Task: inverse folding
């Protein structure tokens, strides 16, 4: 069995076993189906598998290509670089955590739930591992089906509307993205005389196009990826989907599904159309900053904790997009690191909200308060993950957020002031960084306000839970049980699934250097694409000439290492 393919086949095989087994065995099979990829990934990431973390090429651990439709150049082709491997690692880490988090939350249609949860993990892994654009698109689009079913069947009261809105938004954008990919493939066939769907081959063809063509392809690619992130103003589907989804669905959505959009921007929008991406960088940067501030201000007025965390994702991912469109190594590395960190801290916050909802059947800050006195272990984790999401120095959110802002700040200097950025207007700079930086203040205010209301202060509980309740969700002393037999505070299963996330947040906050070193190669290679030297071998169209004059390459690898320290 090929190394990468196993990461996709393990959860798929487990899904088949769950479907064929009694419902009582579903949880155990699903857990093993997600634990095996964790162990296998640890092997792939080790020296034993000969994966080179310093190499920027996306052909490592590659699957022997199998022809699908030779006439169209379609192949079943897998391969990864450091960026892909890190996102696959995040995917497999959250897999068993989501299964464990569902033990008490999902009590009906158990087999259906775990089947689609496992299929979703396989599809997300396939997105990051695919090297053929058709294979990428199949995995990318298929992720809609499992999540639609999970929200529609296991969500809250407004789940059907949330699932439908989620599907329509993302499917519509994906179709436009497909049109751009098909155009690049057609362009390659027209110029070379042969069809190919290989990512690397089509990237060369796309980068050879004049700015006018690249612009249309870029806008088509961004239509799908911006919705998936989501970028303002196409973000409106996300808060509803997050709020109505089951806890594990929200964790997967925040942890991995949204990263399909930022990964698509990195791999296609930047990698295929660097000239157009640079040209439209100011517009994208403005939209990212508006999303950071707008979503943050909306969080201020939220009373539903889960909805607040949902809107915070729109704000946080604005930093990811900003770092990508800084077009320098430190910004791109910070953006990829932010993808990982956001998945850890925000995924953990959704777990915390789900745990308290199982006990009180409420997420309202008007009905919940002073939980530190009732649930001290839960409160400890809640404060920890909230501070990680705020970006407290020493925790994971700080380094990546700082790098995104630093990359944005330096973007105007990378080109020497008179190069690509100056001639096309396609640059960011200090003003963009300053505006986005105010979002960090907004984030601290609404998250700390939420923690102050829910964790500290006078104990407030929903009706029927004040010390002595109806026996369903409340507490009557230290040994009382909440809904589904849960104790008032966290049990060992819940503590166990939170500890790996807490450890990862602490490790990436105190010592992110290994990750940053792994990202140096891919991020510097991507930043180099916008330089004249990366496109000097092809003739330039007339409308491109001003866009490449006077470019000076920039190597920010040393800056990245310093940020890591």
Result:
């Amino acid at each position: 069995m090929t190394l990468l393919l196993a990461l996709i086949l393990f959860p798929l095989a487990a899904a088949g076993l769950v479907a064929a087994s009694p419902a009582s065995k579903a949880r155990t099979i699903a857990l093993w189906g997600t634990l095996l990829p964790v162990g296998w990934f640890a092997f792939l990431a080790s020296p034993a598998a000969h994966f080179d973390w310093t190499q920027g090429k996306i052909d490592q651990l590659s699957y022997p290509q199998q022809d699908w439709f030779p006439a169209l150049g379609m192949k079943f082709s897998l391969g990864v670089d450091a960026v892909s491997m890190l996102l696959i690692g995040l995917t497999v880490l959250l897999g068993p955590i989501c299964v464990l988090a569902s033990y008490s939350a999902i009590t009906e249609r158990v087999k259906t739930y775990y089947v689609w949860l496992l299929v979703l993990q396989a599809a997300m892994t396939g997105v990051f591992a695919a090297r053929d654009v058709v294979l990428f698109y199949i995995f990318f689009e298929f992720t809609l089906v499992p999540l639609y079913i999970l929200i529609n069947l296991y969500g809250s009261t407004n789940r059907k509307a949330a699932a439908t809105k989620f599907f329509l938004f993302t499917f519509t954008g994906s179709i436009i993205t497909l049109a751009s990919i098909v155009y690049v493939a057609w362009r390659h066939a027209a110029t070379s005389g042969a069809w190919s769907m290989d990512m690397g081959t089509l990237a060369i063809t796309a980068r050879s196009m004049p700015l006018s063509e690249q612009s249309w392809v870029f806008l088509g690619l961004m239509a799908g990826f911006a919705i998936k992130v989501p970028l303002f103003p196409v973000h409106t589907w996300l808060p509803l989907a997050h709020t109505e989804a089951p806890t594990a669905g929200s964790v997967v959505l925040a942890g991995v599904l949204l990263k399909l959009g930022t990964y698509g921007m990195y791999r296609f929008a930047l990698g295929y159309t660097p000239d157009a991406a640079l040209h439209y960088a100011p517009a994208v940067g403005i939209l990212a900053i508006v999303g950071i501030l707008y979503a943050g201000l909306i969080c201020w007025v939220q009373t539903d904790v889960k909805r607040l965390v949902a809107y915070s994702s729109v704000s946080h991912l604005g930093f990811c997009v900003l770092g990508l469109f800084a077009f320098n190594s430190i910004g791109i590395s910070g953006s990829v690191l932010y993808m990982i960190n956001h998945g850890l801290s925000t995924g953990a916050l959704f777990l915390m909200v789900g745990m308290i909802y199982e006990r009180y059947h409420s997420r309202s800050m008007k009905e919940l308060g002073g939980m530190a006195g009732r649930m001290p272990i839960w409160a400890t984790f809640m404060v920890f993950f909230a501070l990680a999401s705020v970006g407290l120095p020493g925790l994971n959110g700080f380094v990546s957020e700082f790098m995104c802002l630093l990359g944005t700040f330096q973007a105007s200097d990378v080109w020497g002031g008179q190069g690509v950025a100056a001639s096309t207007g396609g640059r960011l700079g200090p003003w963009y960084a300053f505006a986005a930086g105010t979002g960090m203040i907004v984030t601290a205010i609404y998250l700390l306000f939420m923690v102050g209301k829910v964790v500290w202060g006078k104990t407030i509980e929903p009706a029927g839970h004040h010390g002595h309740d109806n026996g369903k969700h409340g507490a009557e002393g230290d040994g009382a049980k909440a809904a589904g037999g849960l104790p008032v505070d966290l049990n060992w299963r819940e503590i166990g699934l939170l500890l790996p996330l807490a450890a990862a947040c602490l490790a990436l906050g105190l010592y992110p250097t290994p990750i940053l070193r792994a990202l140096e190669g891919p991020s510097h290679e991507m930043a180099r694409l916008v330089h004249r030297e990366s496109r000097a071998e092809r003739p330039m169209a007339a409308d491109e000439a001003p866009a490449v004059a006077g470019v000076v390459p920039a190597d920010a690898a040393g800056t990245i290492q310093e940020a890591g320290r």
